[in-house]
Amino acid sequence: MSETPATDFATARRSQLFDELLALFLAEGFAHLTLDAVAARLHCSKSTLYTLAGSKGDLVRAATIGFFRGAAEDVEAAVAAQVSPRAQITAYLSAVGRALSAASPQFLADLAAFAPAREAYEQNTAIAAARVKELIDAGVEAGEFRRVHAVFAADLAASTMVRIQQGDVRAATGLDDAGAYRELAAILTAGISV
Fold it and tell me: Residues in domain HTH tetR-type (predicted)?
């Protein structure tokens, strides 16, 4: 059964509204914004926002998941464009850095302070660690990396990724997130190369 033009328009409007909501949160954070303020900024009613999620917390969680889902697609596209495991790990971590560079410091601080969004970030970091392990294993299998404890190397990368997200690396080194991810890629791949 085909959707009607009105349904198509409503779906397109919700998608556009979600994209605008995500852009607002990424640019300014979300903790300080009320639903009334979000509705005013997006030029819609609160009832329209409720078509996206049932509460502000649900909106934040949905936006966070949407952000990480989109980032994951971009990251995997960057990996797929590379052939060697070393280049894939570098592409992976660099693409993560690029994706996170879209998020303002306020968004990242709000994310860390709001448990449902923080849980989504932590789940995404666990997925990233597993993906780094897969890439390391592929590099060992291809003879490009020396035999290392891939789970440890991936855990090291994940721990650093969390420190980057929480602003600890920036505070300690002055590196922005994208620069920190580039350095992580360089150190990790150099450390495991044959």
Answer: 21-63
Task: Count CB-CB contacts under 10 A for residue 194.
Answer: 9
- Note down the domain range covering 80: 56-192
Asked whether residue 9 carries a pLDDT value surpassing 60, the answer given is: no
* CATH code of the domain containing 123: 1.10.357.10
pLDDT value at 7 more than 60: no
What's the confidence (pLDDT) of residue 12? 81
CA distance 148 to 63: 37
31-40 LR contacts (CB < 8 Å, sep 24+) = 31/110, 31/113, 31/114, 35/59
What total number of domains does the chain contain?
1
Does residue 72 have a pLDDT over 90? yes
Per-residue pLDDT band at 3 (split at 50, 70, 90):
low
Query: Within a domain: residue 35?
Result: no
Look at residue 21 and tell me if it is in a domain: no
Q: How far is CA 7 from CA 10, 40, 47, 85, in A?
A: 5, 24, 17, 45
Phi, psi of 50 (to 5 degrees): -70, -15
Q: Give me the amino acid identity at 94.
A: S
Determine, yes or no, domain membership for 37.
no
pLDDT at 114 over 70: yes
The answer to whether residue 132 is domain-embedded is: yes
pLDDT at 101 over 90: no
